[in-house]
Amino acid sequence: MAAQAALRVLKQRIAIQLLGFALTVSILATLVFFVGGWIASSIPRNPDWREPETGITILVADNGLHTELVLPIVTPEEDWRQTFPALYLPRDDGQYPTHVAIGWGEKDVFLHTPTWSDLKPATVWHIAIHGGSAIIRLTPFVRPAPDRWYRPLRLRPDEYRRLVRSILGSLPPLPLGSPRQSYRGFDPSAFNYDALGRYTFANSCNQWTSNQLAAAGVRTGYWTPFSGGVMKWVPQTDP
Asked: What angle do CA 93, 190, 100 make, to 5 degrees?
């Protein structure tokens, strides 16, 4: 009996030690992720790029966690209605959109998670272990005004064309003549489309945003898992 009791105590001690080890590793991994993300986001891609005085103005949007790009729907370089016919439709208020916010993210989150408090632990676990399916979300706007959350950025026409090509490259190819399927999520004003790639904590929505800017030739960070890593490269306009 004494031997069995000693064995139980030993097992309990081992279990406690393993739990403590796992917690320590998790804390250290989280710390490395946050510190590494901030450092890597400060290393510039396209370091010699300078914003032109004239050009096509886009907006880089940030809600504190997620970033996306707000683009004019129609320019000589691109008419987004050709790719997304839903942008021909008026909004619920009857106004026709002039701009569209384009963001890339995880499918279940974009469709079924209106607030972070609605985020299911199972979804987080699935993303952490397997990665999540990617989706592109479009949100129509009417003449959005710049502010601290919507920062303007001017691009040269050729840079904007490169940005367009990069964004279109995030969409899966379709058979000729086939319509692109749209999903409706919790936001009735948004349109969601399947996208290429896998969403992970290392390959986040913010990394996608900075990748598109980098493809256009804009100065931005190398690895930007957090929204602040993207926005640090976009000057804030004066109020």
From this structure: 80
